[in-house]
Write a structure and sequence with these properties.
Shape: elongated
Mean pLDDT: 91
Strand content: 15-25%
Number of strands: 4
Structural class: alpha+beta
Order of helices and strands: HHHEEHEEHH
Helix content: 40-55%
Radius of gyration: 22 Å
Low-confidence stretches: none
Largest sheet: 2 strands, antiparallel
Length: 140
């Protein structure tokens, strides 16, 4: 056996790395899309306020519309969640985790307390179960 023939029997590391990177991007992008869709569908169009612990109700539709995902190639991860419509907006964080925020009006300022109405964490947890099936046979 010649040296070239023996060398041809080994893995091409760069080719394997590219295949794994492509599979990672594809699987995590699908996962991001599934979580985004589940989070969007959990936010229902209703009047009033949702019960604490349940996903928030949608009145205008902006929260549902601006839930996005993006694959981060440097970290080989996916980021999923609502975008901020205004700089300094705390609405998505307050809806997901609850907390307090200052509310200014013409007559003065008040501190308002928000109870959590999670929509991203439950969507992530529900879709996380299907992640191993997405990875199955993903590297070619």
């Amino acid at each position: 056996m010649t040296f070239q023939a023996a060398k041809g029997g080994f893995f091409d590391r760069e080719k394997v790395r590219r295949s794994v990177d492509a599979a990672t991007r594809k699987v995590l992008s699908k996962f991001g899309a599934f979580v985004r869709q589940r989070a969007r569908s959990s936010i229902r169009q209703r009047k009033g306020t949702s019960p604490p612990g349940q996903p928030p109700y949608s009145h205008v539709g902006l929260l549902r519309k601006f839930i996005l995902f993006a694959y981060d190639p440097d970290r080989k991860s996916v980021v999923i969640g609502p975008t901020l419509l205004r700089e300094g907006s705390q609405a998505p964080r307050l809806l997901e985790h609850g907390g307090a925020a200052d509310h200014r009006t013409e007559t003065g300022a008040r501190r308002l307390r928000y109870r959590p109405r999670p929509f991203m964490r439950p969507a992530f947890e529900r879709e996380k179960v299907a992640l191993p099936a997405l990875w199955k046979n993903s590297v070619r």
